Structure formats: structure tokens, C-alpha cells
Amino acid sequence: MSTEFLTIFKIIVSAAFVDNIILARYIGLCPYIGMSSSVANSIGMGMAVTFVMVLASIVTWILWNYVLVPFGLEYLRIMVFILVIATLVQLVEILLKKNVPNLYRAMGIYLPLITTNCAILAVTFLGVDYGYPLFQVVIYSISVALGFTVALILLAGIRERLRLAKVPNFWQGYPIVFIATCLLAIAFLGFKGLVK
Amino acid sequence: MREFWHYFKNGLLGENPVLKLMIGLCSVLAVSVRVDNCLGMGMAVIFVLTCSSLVISLMRNFVPNEVRIPIFIVVISTFTTIVDLVMKAYLPPLSKAMGIFIPLIVVNCIIMARAEAFASRKPPLYAVADALGMGVGYTLVITAIGVVRELFGYGEFLSHPVFPESFQGMMAMILPPGAFLLIGIYIAILNWSLRRAKR
Amino acid sequence: MTKILRTALALTVVCGVAALALSFVYVVTRERIASEARKELDEALALVFPEGENFTPIDLATLGPIPESKELQFLEAYEAIKGGKRQGIVVKVASTGYGGPIVLLIGVDTEKGTITGIRVLEHQETPGLGSNVAAEPFLSQFLGKPLTSPFTIGEDVQAVSGATISSRAVARACGKVAELLRGERE
Known about the structure:
The complex is a heterotrimer of chains A (196), B (199) and C (186).
Chain A: H1 2-18, H2 29-34, H3 39-68, H4 77-99, H5 101-107, H6 111-114, H7 118-129, H8 134-162, H9 174-189
Chain B: H1 2-12, H2 25-31, H3 35-58, H4 68-90, H5 92-98, H6 109-119, H7 124-154, E1 156-157, E2 160-161, H8 171-174, H9 176-198
Antiparallel strand pairs in B: 1-2
Chain C: H1 2-48, E1 54-58, E2 72-82, E3 85-96, E4 101-109, E5 114-122, H2 136-139, H3 164-185
Antiparallel strand pairs in C: 1-2, 2-3, 3-4, 4-5
């Protein structure tokens, strides 16, 4: 029991902080730069990503272990996974619109952007590569999404402040955002070595 | 032919996918630790981008509008898988160094964005011109970052030592912060030079 | 109705062509990918056990009780054969370093009871610091060491400066492999 708990705790800390998908692995940068202009936006995006990420990793895990591997079709992985994600995003969008309009209003506009969010595809690949059992894959994808959301909210906070700051002419806009990200990444380096 | 060059040049600087449109950033930062990785990644992206743009442009009149996104995805992922398999077979060290970023070409926003915004509307020749321009623009940026990171991070260029033995690599350049810092500086430089050119 | 048919037709044709193209490329590259992987393993095996003429995979369990360790996993074992006789064993282990598991190949001469070679296959250590444990100066310390040595950082092995945890992970792997094969020798 306690070792099981320890493994899960380890997965959470390393996926969310040590190997933070944006700041340590450079995956999912496009939405990170695009959606971090305000804290409200970044929370909505974080929610949508979490939702789709968990669903996608469950579906792809099942497909991988019960369809692709038994039939020796591992080489179709890229195509199958990306199609699963695209379909899933559409499905979630339709279902939410119909049944949970409140939630749809909160994260609906972020959903179409998610199909080309490499973080989702990366998590489904990594979850399979690490050979986790299904339960751990769920935990893993939740933690990665948590790490993604934390990084997004942190940057959004910084950007809201930056708007009041006097930034030299050519550094306005994206350049200063990257410099801020650089400093965030340095801070996150401090988590390295936390998990033994 | 003039238009071909026009669309080609577009991607190089003015609408450079990485520095101006802010797309396809992930692989730029992750792979650019060494120059040879950068060139490999650049080639892979140019191949996938050009082939998918060509195919999508050829199909533009037959593809029903409602299913165009799934069809784009199928086309792009086919070419990505081909690159993945061929690299694994013929360039295993490179394929290992780039790891997950080869399959991730499929969600490289550059390709999807160009398919949607350009290739599905224009004739094949222009689509190829645009794809080549974007691809080369991408490769230029990633290599420019790679040169600096390899030079200061390892003190080497294309794995050949440049500095004397006593040189200590700058760790920060190899780690994520260095990548973010460099791309910030590059964007600032591009903004500066574009604005100067305008004046 | 015709619209649905047209949509379906377009999707089917595209998917069919894609599947055909992919299976073609897969068949063409399959052999080559497998042989590259084999070649890579053979090269690594030959480096850690230069005298071996060929290597055959063996079951780890035949080497005796595997030493228990939370930070070390035994993955695979190979028999190094020379002139039809078993000369040594090569063991593949994963030892937990600073950034994640360090996967090592360790060759042991079971006749003489010494380490013949050691090689890092995969690691995620900090570039520029921990990554130096994969380099020659550090690894060559282990060459020719008898299995009875302590394999302890600071005693018989010098750590890479600034990377004690990574160095310790490699030393630990050697120590445990030696412990396993000491029993094998007797």
C-alpha cells in the first residue's frame, strides 16, 4: 500500500514540477504563449486541456494495448493517436454544448485549439512509452495537465504585471514574454533532483 | 515564376513562422541543442510540410469542406510516419536524439496552419513555394539558435571542438532557460531590424 | 444523400491511400530498423566485453538471487562466448540517478572476476554536469577492478565533480552487479 502510494506521489511530483511539460520539456509552447495574456483565459485553457488530456490518454492507452500492439500495428501510432484526439475534441465539444452549457461557455472556445496542442499528443505517447498501467496513466495525465496549468497561470500573472511595466521598445510583446519564461524555467530547474 | 519567389520569400523573414507567427516553437527549442539535430529536424519539417501542402493543394477541389480537417490530419500524419520510419531505419542516432519530437511534427502548428490558410486555397505550385519558404525559414531559425547553443553550451560546432580544452561549457545554454532566452533575443533583433528596414 | 456519399467517399479514398503508403514504407523499413537495433546492441556489447566473440541473451534468474534494491533494476543479461566457452557475463541495469534512470551495460569477466567494461546507454542527467558520468574519464576508473572492490564513491572511485548523485548511481550499479556475479563465480 505505502509503496503504491509512493509511486503515485512520485509520478505526480515529477510530471507536474520536475519534468514540467512546458518549462522542462518544451512541449505545448504554442498555447502557452498564445493563451497566457490573462489569468482568466489561462484557467479556462488549463481546464480544457486537463479534460481532453485525461480522456485522450485513457482512450489511446486502451487502443494501444488492446488493438495496436496485439495486431502488430505499432507503426500506425502517430495517425491513430492524432485522429483519436481530433475526434475526441469534436465529440467533447458537441456533448458539452448540448448537455452542460455552463461548462461549455467556460472552456468551449479553447477546445478547437486543442487538436493541435502538442502537449496532448505528447502525453499520450509518453504514457504509452513509460509502460504505465491504466490507473497510473490517468494519474500521470492529470499531473502533466496540472503542471501545464500552473505554468500557464504563472506566466499569465507575470504578463498582467508586465503591461504596467516600462519595457524597452524592441522587447515589447513576445521577446519579454520569452525572457520571463526563461526566468520561470530557471526557477523550475530547482525542482530537479527532488524525486529520487 | 515571379509569384513563386514572392511566396517563397514570404516565409523567410517577413512572415517567418517561428519568429513572427509564433508557431512551431516546441521543436525549435527542444531540438536546437546541437546543429546536426537542427538540420535533421529542419529537413524533416521541410519534407512533411512540402509533401502535405502539395497533396492538400492537389486535392483542394475534391475534398468536401466538412471533412477537410480530418483529411488534412490523415495526410500530415502519413508523411510524418514516413519520416519517422525512414529516420529510424537510416539515421538511427539522429532519430534517437530527436526522440518524441519527430512524431510531434504532426501537431507542429506550422503545417496545419499552412494547410488551412494557404495550401487548401492555392494551386500546387504556389503551395509548394509557400511550404518551402516556411520550411526554410523554420530551418534558418532553428539552426541559428542551434549554432549559439552548441558553441557556448558544449564549445563545439557540429561536434568539433572550437574552443581550447580549458573551455567550460555554459550549462544554461543547453538547459531550457538558455533556449527561451535566445529565442527572446532573436525576436527582439528581428523586430528591430524590420522596423529599421521600414524607415 | 449524394453529399454524404461524396464525403464518405473522399474520406475512404484518402484513408485507403494513406494506409497503402504507410504499409509500403513500413515493409520497406522494417528489416532495416530491426537490424540497426541489433547492430547497436552488438556494438555496445562488444565495447564492454572486447574479448567476446558472440553474445547470447540469458535469463537473469539463472545468475542466482537478484540483489534487492529500490534504486536499481536488473534488465537483461548476456553471455559472452569465446571459443565456444563462456568467458563472461554482460548485464544491463537501470540505476536511479539525478534526473531519472541511468541505463548501463556492465561487462564482467567471470574467469578473472574483473569488470571488463561499462557503458551508459541512456540517461537524463543534467547536461554538462551529470552527463559526464557517461564519458570515458569517469567510466575508465572501473576497468579491470576486481568484483570484490567496494565500489564506493570516495573510496575506490572518484566522483565527477558537481555530480555526486549521478556518480553514485553508476558506482551502485557496478557494486550490485559485482555482488550478483560474485555468487556466480563460486
